[in-house]
Design goal:
Blueprint (H helix, E strand, L loop, with lengths): L1 H23 L4 H99 L9 H16 L6 H11 L1 H13 L3 E8 L5 E9 L2 E6 L5 E7 L2 E5 L3 H13 L12 H8 L3 H6 L5 H23 L8 H10 L3 H9 L5 H10 L5 H20 L2 H33 L8 H49 L6 H6 L1
Antiparallel strand pairs: 1-2, 2-3, 3-4, 4-5
Helix pairs in contact: 1-2, 2-4, 3-4, 9-14, 9-15, 10-11, 11-12, 12-13, 12-15, 13-15, 14-15
Length: 483
């Protein structure tokens, strides 16, 4: 590279100095010639060195190229090794992730199994008969302790800890299987129950299917074993059934009285209210409803006696009266009219007495008698109708009052305890119940009595029309004068 620069400098210097020497003239030509010779010599020397350098480069380029090829080959091999190592690393990472996922799934399965065992243990405890809790008291305590320990260490526990948790709780399954084997065909075991006097009795329990019985070994107490709070209580059935239970408890064989209701019949009987207790649940509005019911009943009884005791004329009575009148025997017709039974007697007597008058007048007289009878038949019936309409409204008022009391209790105590709400709900439902109980019979009685009264009035109206239509045609005074 230095030789090339020198040659370039000599060429530039020649181009510049040659014209300069020509200008300066011949004296300087000799010096210029020497300078050119020196430059030419330097140029040749530089060319020789340049050629030697090129030869040296050619000689060194081949091994360098060979070395470069070897290095590139090594680089490609190294890259292939790196790619293989990366793939191997990736494959190992994938396998590791898969293993981690499998571990997570196995841990979730262990947690699921542990939760299932916990739920089953809780159901097992709930399904136990109250008498069996005396047998499994310690096992239930152990299971609860294991469950509490599992709940405290559930966060961040390792696989071995999860397995240990399952192993600590799995004994409840073995306990359930053992209990199932014991209950096949029935089971008898020692225990304590609350007797009829409220004292604990030592004796033997008999489990047969869902039924539980108890026979005391200290007294004649025997009967059904039912749950009352946290202790079993004994309820006597009858003398024969109690004797059979005692025989089975002593001899492990015999006849047991099976209760299909599983004790619910006793519970329902204990919760059954008397009529007075049921009425008291209705609150203050039950008393006006009962008052209206009493008055409506008395009124209906009185009106039933009054209306149904009205005697109706015999079918042939009116025919005889009309025959006597049309034949001109007014005295006989009047006598027959006085023999008619019931309220139609006065109407027919007046009609016979005025039979000589015009038919329009006779109709008015008979209609007047019917008008006098109608209020007597229909009196007090509106009160029964008012009772039928008012009783449901008072029942609805009691319902509203009971619901208001219920919501007050909900505001104070919340909805956690349903027993606190039973008073308001009972008041709401009982008043509605008695309101309908009073209204429905009142409505029916009013309809029957009113229909009966209307029937009496219709019968009298029919008799009046028949009487007027059955009279012979009467001549007026004007017609007699014209003759």
């Amino acid at each position: 590279m230095n030789s090339s620069k020198r040659i370039s400098v000599l060429k530039v210097s020649t181009r510049i100095l040659l014209p300069l020497f020509l200008l300066l003239g011949a004296p300087a030509w000799g010096q210029f010639d020497r300078a050119v010779s020196s430059i030419q010599s330097d140029l040749e020397d530089a060319l020789r060195r340049y050629a030697a350098l090129q030869a040296e480069i050619r000689d060194e380029k081949v091994p360098l190229d060979r070395q470069l090829n070897e290095l590139q080959s090594e680089l490609r091999e190294a890259r292939r090794e790196a790619d293989r190592a990366q793939r191997l690393r990736d494959n190992r990472q994938v396998d590791l992730n898969a293993l981690r996922e499998r571990v997570v799934r196995r841990q979730e399965q262990l947690d699921f199994v542990a939760n299932l065992i916990t739920d089953y243990g809780q159901r097992f405890e709930r399904d136990l008969d109250v008498s069996e809790r005396q047998i499994y008291r310690q096992e239930l305590l152990d299971f609860q302790a294991a469950d509490d320990r599992a709940a405290l260490s559930a966060e961040g526990e390792e696989g071995n800890q999860r397995i240990q948790r399952v192993l600590e709780q799995i004994f409840i399954l073995e306990l359930a299987i053992d209990r199932f084997d014991r209950l096949l065909g029935g089971d008898i075991f020692e225990g304590q129950a609350v007797g009829p006097t409220g004292e604990l009795e030592n004796g033997r329990f008999i489990l047969y299917g869902p039924a539980s019985f108890f026979a005391s070994s200290e007294s004649p107490v025997a009967g059904l074993s039912l749950r009352t709070g946290t202790s079993p209580a004994v309820f006597s059935i009858n003398r024969e059934a109690d004797a059979n239970i005692r025989a089975v408890a002593e001899n492990s064989r015999g006849v047991l009285p099976i209760d299909p209701s599983l004790g619910n019949a006793f519970a329902l009987d204990a919760e059954r209210d008397t009529l007075f207790e049921h009425i008291q649940k209705g609150g203050i509005w039950i008393w006006p409803i009962l008052g209206f019911a009493l008055l409506a009943f008395l009124t209906a009884a009185y009106k039933t006696f009054e209306i149904y005791s009205v005697k109706m004329p015999e079918p042939g009575a009116l025919h005889g009266i009309l025959a006597a009148l049309n034949s001109g025997d007014k005295e006989k017709a009047l006598q027959l009219a006085k023999q008619v039974r019931g309220p139609a007697q006065l109407m027919l007597v007046d009609a016979v007495e005025h039979s000589d008058e015009r038919k329009e007048l006779i109709e008015e007289i008979m209609y007047e008698r019917m008008i006098e009878l109608q209020p007597k038949l229909e009196r007090l019936l509106p009160f029964i109708a008012v009772t039928a309409a008012t009783a449901p409204l008072m029942g609805l008022l009691g319902t509203v009052t009971g619901m208001i009391n219920t919501f007050k209790l909900i505001t104070i105590f919340g909805t956690g305890d349903a027993r606190r709400l039973s008073g308001g709900i009972s008041e709401a439902l009982v008043t509605t119940e008695f309101g309908l109980i009073v209204a429905i019979p009142s409505l029916i009685m009013h309809a029957l009595l009113n229909r009966r009264a209307q029937g009496v009035m219709a019968n009298m109206e029919r008799m009046a029309v028949s009487f007027v239509n059955g009279l012979a045609v009467q001549r007026t005074p004007d017609s007699k004068a014209s003759e």
